[in-house]
Amino acid sequence: MTDRTTPEPGPDADVFHCSLEGEIDFACRDELTLVARTFAASPCRRAEIDVTGVTFVDSTALAMLLGMLRTAEDRGGSVVLVGPGRQLVRLLTIAGVAPLFGVTGPAEV
User: Cα 35 from chain centroid?
Assistant: First the structure.
């Protein structure tokens, strides 16, 4: 997994930006936990996660995304997935949580 996180707010001080690439699975749980904790420690209400480069996801990714969603919603914010692939969309749909996330960019369905 490759993570490019902007720990400090970007141009929009209310948005946490993060980019994930590669396989997002149990093997990278520590890195995913760090991303979620960094978001939780920030003052941001909204998280934008660029997932266009993600090639594989499992329930570990789902747990991280749901944790970030809880944090965002507690602050009156949201989590937006940028360019989710077919596998991530399918995982979110099967789990019944797809409608909880915003999506921008081309989503493969």
Answer: 9
pLDDT in tens, the chain (109 residues): 555 544 444 556 789 999 999 999 999 999 999 999 999 999 999 999 999 999 999 999 999 999 999 999 999 999 999 999 999 999 999 999 999 999 998 666 5
Given its phi and psi angles, is residue 6 left (phi above 0), alpha (psi -120 to 50 degrees) or beta? beta
Q: Which residue has the tokens 């090639």?
A: 55
Q: Find out whether 42 and 16 touch, Cβ atoms under 8 Å.
A: yes
Count CB atoms within 10 A of the CB of residue 79: 23
Look up residue 78 and give its two tokens. 């949201």
DSSP state of 108: P
Amino acid at 37: R
Q: What share of the chain is helix, strand, coil (3-state, %, to 5)?
A: 40, 30, 30
Give the chain's length: 109
